[in-house]
Amino acid sequence: MSMTAIKFVPLWTDVLIYLLVAVIVAFVLYARKREHLRSQWRQVARSRMGMASLVVLLVYVAVGLLDSVHFREAVERNGDNAEVHYSAEVLSVLDVVLTPLRERVEKTYSAPFATHLYAKEMMELPDGSSVRDYPRLDYGGAHLVNPAADRGADILATATQAALQAAAMLLVLFMLVSGVLARKNKLGFATSMGRVLRGRTELPWHIMLLTFGVLLILGMLAAHLGVKYHVFGTDKVGQDVLYQVLKSIRTGLVIGTLTTLVMLPFAVLLGIMAGYFRGWVDDVIQYTYTTLSSIPGVLLIAAMVLTLQVYVETHPELFDTIAHRADMRLLFLCIILGITSWTGLCRLLRGEVMKLREVDYIQSATAFGVGHFKIIGRHLLPNVMHIVLISVVLDFSGLVLAEAVLSYVGVGVDPTMNSWGNMINAARLEMAREPIVWWSLTAAFIFMFTLVLSANLFSDAVRDAFDPRLRKQ
Amino acid sequence: MNDILLSVRDLRTWFDSSRGPIRAVDGISFDVRRGETFALLGESGCGKSMTALSLMQLLPPQAAGNVSGEVILDGQDLLALPELAMRDVRGNRIAMIFQEPMSSLNPVLTVGEQIGETLRRHKKMSGAAARTRVLELLDAVGIPDRQRRCDEYPHQLSGGMKQRVMIAIALAGEPELLIADEPTTALDVTIQAQILDLLQQLQQDTGMAILLITHDLGVVAGMADHVAVMYAGHIVEQAARADFFARPLHPYSQKLFASLPGRAKRGHALAVIEGSVPSLAQEFRACRFAARCEFAWDSCRAQAPRWLTPEGEHGVRCHLYDPAITAPEQVLKAQAAAETHKPPQPGSGGTLIHVDRLKVHFPIHKGLFKRVAGHVRAVDGVSLELQRGRTVALVGESGCGKTTAGKAILQLIRPTAGSVRYGNLELTALSGGALRAHRRDLQIIFQDPYSSMNPRMMVGDIIEEGMLAQRVGGAAAGRGQRIDALLTQVGLAPEAKHRYPHEFSGGQRQRICIARALAVEPKVIVCDEPTSALDVSVQAQILNLLKGLQDDLGLSYLFITHNMSVVEYLAHNVAVMYLGRIVEQGTVEDVLQNPKHPYTQALLSAVPNVDEQTKREVIRLEGDMPSPVNPPPGCHFHPRCPHVRPECRKQYPRYTTLSETHQVNCFLYGQGSER
């Protein structure tokens, strides 16, 4: 496949994700020059729990970003027709990386590490007679001649090999970190290694390396075992569950971050204006958010998602592929969630700004004749940023969970899109079946739990550093 | 009987911090005798409150394990006691009252319940017996209408009342020792006089000892039997009160006296203590005061001074009094030399601001439709004049509306009625851009140097803000030069502009605020209690700076304060405010030397005085200032006035002109006239 044979298809959410990444990079560059911001982030960086959870989050983000570069492959054509047609299937870089997982589709359910299907089938034996038994899987453990006897030993051998490779990679990484630190602090290499090991460095490198090491081992295990077996089993149509949970990461991250991006301008601008100008501006904004927050959120979301669904179905010409349709629904879900969730932050900011506008330095700016919007931009906004940041990080995990709940109810993301909510929704039937299929739910649970837990731990570290009331002395 | 109640020997309290131990209290020793008041005097950060907390073992966790030495209360070492036994000491044998009465009481419990709590814990009293005792205690601390007050919540009481309740709680355990940590700092002078009076009287009645922690020399002069001066975690001087005030020995104590503003020092620069208190995170090998001491010589920087007792019980920690060390000749000469004199600059005159019947009423909204149910008459008809190059002091207790008046003159709060004329301009009629254009002539300096600067801006940007808004100082390079010049003018290095406000001390921040105000070349500066959050020695620096700037630039100040000695030192004219109105105004000599209004007389007499010879009879005012929502009919002051007459209850007195410069609103001096 040559380079010309693909066409990049940026989806709407992809564009917004790149925008978000650009905003974060710009903020980092801005914060580097400002001592008060740097010192607070330095405190986050010194927190062990914060950095451990950051490592986990970054791994998730890396997967999500890989899954946000979409393209369509050219369909192989015979002859020299100049026009190139592209496949209707939109792939991402992650799909390419996970090709072995994506393409090894079984017939139906199979348990984790199974070599046989989970359902009996009529099979014809070579001698012509037929028997009803569990058939061998097409891919899972297909390399084994005698699965019943060899499977345990094979898994152990593969796992050991994976773990050893992971350990070697970790060692290289450890030496690399020590080397860079040795160079930076002008220390001997051995001294630096000792410091990193004992946690005598400014950042908790030992914790970060340990966390990353655990993830690396898990990743290597999945990589080695995943090509031979279905680590998390397969679902009803025989798709690898590991592939599904990995693909769901992007959906969770998009909901968690883009919703915030949609909500922030409303919440920040309106909150500050309400608190600063008071009077009728305050009345109008207060009235709006009180009204909005008294409509049950789920009702509003259901109404809007269903309306959108009807619109999409009656205008199929607007969407090139299924992926575009699903993406549009995801984006709308973000927008709707954003519209219903800005009121909390807005209320917080209004209260804080009402306090701040009476503070002496705002009064002094007024005494200098500084204009209203300059006061808002220069004095109020930087002094409420900590609240914005804390609530954004805290909201993230709530939104990831909200997606799962909404998809379960049936008003979440498109059913064709991989998401933890959809997996849990499917598990409703799987759990009711006898014998039960437990692995889809378990896989979704593990991945979602890890993400939400590390997001919560990270937000604790951020809050400790930024909340002036929690700051020590 | 052994008359020493509490004996503290070599007490050390160290804090753990990321930069090593902080020696908050570093080896102090003193004795408190029964029935006497021992004052621990020092500026903020010298470790005096930490000493009190160490005695009570109420230290924060970072310090709890690092207390050494001996604290012997009546033969029992408190530091050796376990926490459980300590609980029987706290509140029972040693009681403590804190600085902030607002936050020391639990807002959801009634006064009676809070006093009863101590009775239940230490005296095993409950039910009717406890109630009777609570009422007795409330009576003892002079709370009127005690039956009703007993069932009220803290928010229903005024600041002075709350402090009385705190004292009642402290007394409930019948303590042998009362630790009073800045008991009157948050209160007004007239209330402070009431509380100090009460403490003295209770001491006479119960014979308890008081450990008084304060920064106020005036309070020490009125209360203490013995004084210990703390500096940077240890005691530098200790003496009986009379000895200490007659002849302070340590250079630090001498400087503290010299830096007090007052009438006698008008026209002179106040003595200042250069530099700041050294960091307590280091191990001291030399005299801790050496870096700021005028007399310091080599020995001071080489070795720590011993504890010396040159005159009987009067102890001091200074090489000057050590017979084993001889001070160089010039040091002794310097010690005898007097301070430099500077002739007072006469003001240049000419009215700059004319305020006429200024009113600021805040509406009180009630009910569903936010109907206006009444008004807070914060400022209710204030008239005054401010002349070019002169200082008018607006004096009054908290809640009298002086800050509101200052802000209303600057149009930071829009007045309800009245006029503020600046030159030929009517400021109250201006708005929007027109007002903004005139803002540069009128500036303000705030009380709290910590909240008056945006913590997220660099000092240079803070000073530049006004210049940008008012287009002063030209292009970026010109503004940069001007910022450097301004910082130099207020006594800071130009490099300060690249730093953030939190890196500076309170006094330095106040200098930055002054530089910021000066940046737009104002004609008038409203100084809203600019020194009340600062220590005495730093206050002297700021007052010197303000005075120097007035002489050099011909600025006019409207100086809002409650501190009479600052008024005596700085002001040309004084206006005394009570409940939103000016009751007396005139020149400093008129008002302070010859006060006519009974309120002014009471206010002046309540100011604690360091000078023992000129002690005035304290006129005690009953009760608190009424609410400005509902001022009393007739003269606002009549419910508290010792000279009240029938007509006072009916009508507000009009202006009586006593002399060309002196006016008063009081029926004692005739019927008066409308201006």
Describe what you observe in this structure.
The complex is a heterodimer of chains A (473) and B (675). Chain A is mostly helical and 473 residues long. Chain A folds into 3 domains: 101 residues, no CATH class; 88 residues, no CATH class; 225 residues, MetI-like fold (Orthogonal Bundle), CATH 1.10.3720. Chain A is built from 16 helices and 5 strands. In chain A, strands 1-2-3 form a 3-stranded antiparallel beta sheet. A two-stranded antiparallel sheet of chain A has the order 4-5. In chain A, β4 and β5 form a beta hairpin. In chain B, a hairpin with a 6-residue loop joins β1 and β2. In chain B, α5 crosses α6. The relative contact order of chain B is 0.09. About 1% of the residues of chain B have low confidence. Chains A and B meet through α13 and α14 of A and α16, β18 and α17 of B.
Short description:
The complex is a heterodimer of chains A (473) and B (675). With 473 residues, chain A is mainly alpha-helical.
Mean pLDDT of chain B: 85
Sheet with the most strands, sense and barrel status of chain A: 3 strands, antiparallel
| Poorly predicted ranges of chain B | 338-344
Question: Per CATH, what is the topology of the largest domain in chain A?
Answer: MetI-like fold
Sheet of most strands of chain B = 8 strands, mixed
Class from helix and strand fractions of chain A: mainly alpha
Work out the helicity level of chain B: 25-40%
Per CATH, the architecture of the largest domain in chain A is Orthogonal Bundle
Strand order of the largest sheet of chain A: 1-2-3
Any idea what the CATH superfamily of the largest domain in chain A is called? MetI-like
Total strand count of chain B, please?
A: 24
CATH class of the largest domain in chain A: Mainly Alpha
- Tally of DSSP β-strands of chain A: 5
Q: What is the number of helical segments of chain B per DSSP (H or I, 4+ residues)?
A: 23
What oligomeric assembly is this protein in? heterodimer
**Rg of chain A computed from alpha carbons, rounded to a whole number of angstroms:** 26 Å
